[in-house]
Amino acid sequence: MPEPAGPAAEPSYEAAREELADVVRRLEQGGATLEESLSLWERGEQLAATCQAWLDGAKARLDAALAERTDAG
Q: Which of 11, 13, 35, 67 would give a disulfide with 54, using CB separation of 3.0 to 4.6 Å?
């Protein structure tokens, strides 16, 4: 799971999800230029990847905890 490492670090899951929702809203509203739309799309892809990395990390942690519990029991 990504860890905060300074100003250039990836955002938290919640921050990335919120920004992604805003990007989607802006794209759905229309009215942006092609260049702006492409930029928003690219940012949305980055944010979606960040969210997926957080979710994958959380799943791995849960799987490890469950495996540890099963091994101990």
A: 13
Q: What is the DSSP string of 5-69?
A: -STTSPPPHHHHHHHHHHHHHHHHH----HHHHHHHHHHHHHHHHHHHHHHHHHHHHHHHHHHHH
* Residue listed under structure tokens 């100003």: 7
The residue whose two tokens read 């300074």 is: 6
Q: Is 2 helix (H, G, I), strand (E, B) or coil?
A: coil
- pTM confidence score: 0.80
- Tens of pLDDT, residue by residue over 36-69, are 999 999 999 999 999 999 999 999 999 999 998 8
Q: Give the domain ranges of the chain.
A: 13-72
